[in-house]
Please model this.
Amino acid sequence: MDPNWAAENLKVIRTLMERSTIYRHAMTPVMFVIGILGLAGGIIGWSLELDSNRRFCGYWLIVGIASAVLSYLMARREALRDKEPFWSPPTRRVTSAAAPALITGLGAGLLTFAPDYVDPLEVWKLPAAWMVLYGCAMHAAGFFMPRGIKLLGMIFIIAGLAFGCALVWFDTVPPLKFAHLIMGAVFGGIQLMYAVYLFYSKRERNGM
Model:
């Protein structure tokens, strides 16, 4: 084993443990903004009736990418405020842990643009897959962040599995406009509730 590699990993783990409170504080506005974005995305997608296969998937891929970019921009702002480098070893560890599941979700969405991908039921399965993959990404990132992130990931995984099982009972395929509401409720609602939890737990810790 390379001693430099082991020393670097030990340093990263120690840094993450020491700054867990800071990261917990930084996660509150990130989760709040992403939650609002998810809820708004669901309402807008439903009201615009983006119910074709490609419009639905393209729209939510854009929302997902925008959420990821916004998260990193907010993290960068926190890093600058604390006079720390943005692309620090902890940031690299969290990114590398979450990336495989997130890239898989992106690839699954891009498959809908294939010419022979026309079955609406197959597209209905995508929200369930996205929930599970996003939960896996959060759970993996939770090994380097406050433990609540791992629990959040498990909630998404359970929600995705439950929704996937519910699809079995569909007698007819509903319009995809209703899938927008489900996406908004899960990706927006759950993360918004987690932001509220972080906010009030922080106040309790501070004795407010």
Observations:
- The mean pLDDT is 82.
- The chain is about 80% helix and 0% strand.
- The helical segments are 3-18, 20-47, 53-81, 89-110, 120-141, 148-166, 177-205.
- The radius of gyration is 19 Å.
